[in-house]
Design a protein that fits this description.
Blueprint: H1 7-32, H2 38-45, H3 49-53, H4 56-79, H5 89-108, H6 110-151, H7 163-200
Organism: Staphylococcus pragensis
Protein name: Stage II sporulation protein M
Keywords: Membrane, Transmembrane, Transmembrane helix
Length: 201
C-alpha cells in the first residue's frame, strides 16, 4: 500500500516525529525541575477531563472524535492559510502539554511518574505518528498554497506547485495512514495505558 503514497511524506513524518519526541523529552526534563502546586497540576489536567470521565468504547470514540476528526480538521484549515508551519500548532500543543504533566508528575512522585511515562509510550507513538503523517502531507499543500499567494506579489514568478495533487495526497495520507494510527492510539490509550499503569503501581 505504501507504494501508492509519496514516500517523502513518510520520511518527512518520521523526521517530524523524532523532533517532536525530543521536544517532549526536553519539556518533561524542564518541568521536572519546576515545583508546581497540586492545584496547578490538577488544572493542567482538566483539559482532558471530559474524555477521561468516559469509559470503554465511549472513551475510545471521544478520543477518535477529538484526535481523529477535530484536530486534523483544525490542522487542515490552518494549512489553507498562506503561512508556513501554522498547521503545526496542534501538534506542538499535543507534545508540550503531556511533557509538562509528565515532568510535574515525576516531580511529585518519581515512581508513578516513570510508570505513567512508560504507559504513555504506546498510544503516544501511534497518535503522534498519525499527526506527523498528516502534518507532513499538509506541508506540501501549504507550500503550494503559499507559493500561489506569494507569486501574486512577485514580478518574477516562481514555479507553482500542484495544489490538486497535494490535496489528494493529504486525503490519502489521512484516510489510509493517519486516521488508522489515531484509531489504534485511542484503543491503546483507553485500555493498554491504564493496564500498564495499574500493573506497575
Amino acid at each position: 500500500m505504501l507504494k501508492s503514497f509519496d514516500l517523502d511524506i513518510i520520511k518527512r513524518a518520521i523526521k517530524i516525529f523524532i523532533i517532536a519526541t525530543i521536544c517532549l523529552i526536553i519539556t518533561t526534563i524542564i518541568c521536572y525541575f519546576i515545583h508546581p502546586s497540586f492545584n496547578e497540576l490538577k488544572d493542567l489536567g482538566s483539559t482532558s477531563e471530559k474524555i477521561s470521565d468516559a469509559n470503554g468504547l465511549e472513551r475510545v470514540w471521544k478520543y477518535i472524535f477529538n484526535n481523529g476528526f477535530q484536530v486534523p480538521l483544525q490542522m487542515f484549515i490552518l494549512a489553507l492559510l498562506p503561512i508556513p508551519y501554522l498547521y503545526l500548532i496542534n501538534l506542538v500543543v499535543t507534545i508540550i502539554l503531556p511533557g509538562i504533566m509528565l515532568g510535574f508528575l515525576i516531580n511529585f512522585d518519581i515512581h508513578k511518574g516513570i510508570v505513567g511515562s512508560i504507559a504513555f509510550i504506546p498510544h503516544y507513538t501511534f497518535e503522534i505518528m498519525g499527526f506527523c503523517i498528516l502534518a507532513s502531507a499538509l506541508y506540501l499543500l501549504n507550500k503550494a498554497i503559499t507559493r500561489r499567494f506569494t507569486n501574486l506579489f512577485r514580478k518574477n514568478k516562481k514555479e507553482n506547485y500542484a495544489i490538486k495533487t497535494n490535496f489528494i495526497n493529504v486525503i490519502k495520507s489521512y484516510i489510509f495512514i493517519a486516521l488508522p494510527l489515531i484509531i489504534i492510539a485511542a484503543f491503546l490509550e483507553t485500555y493498554v495505558a491504564d493496564f500498564i499503569y495499574n500493573l506497575m503501581t
